[in-house]
Amino acid sequence: MGSRAATETPLRLDDLPMFATDQELAQAIVGRENAERWMRDRLPTLSSRPGFPAVDDFHGGRPVALVRRFYEGYLGIAQSPLAAPGRADASEWKTKSRSRHQA
Fold first, then answer.
1. What residue numbers bound the domain in which 19 lies?
2. Which is nearest to 53 in space by CA: 40, 37, 64, 38?
3. Rounded mean pLDDT of 83-103?
4. How many domains does the chain have?
5. CA distances from 54 to 10, 40, 89 (A)
6. Of the candidates 15, 45, 44, the residue with the CA atom closest to the CA atom of residue 27
7. Is there a domain that residue 92 lies in?
């Protein structure tokens, strides 16, 4: 008979609560079969890198959204908005059509 882990649906970051344990994060990032090795070999290095979130003792885990953001930057897939939220340049907005309709 096959192992139960082989038939379970893979865990994804989207499946985790807002704060997750290192074990849960490891399973979502590299899969259940590689989670222990990732925690032993990779997590110590990642924990010391700028941008990798620390464990929040109050919540008992790392913030999943910040782990996702760290990996998006690490993998080079982070979204880079043209302008930061709330920083749009109003001088670039079209105003001619508005003045035509007011006439």
1. 4-78
2. 64
3. 60
4. 1
5. 24, 16, 36
6. 15
7. no
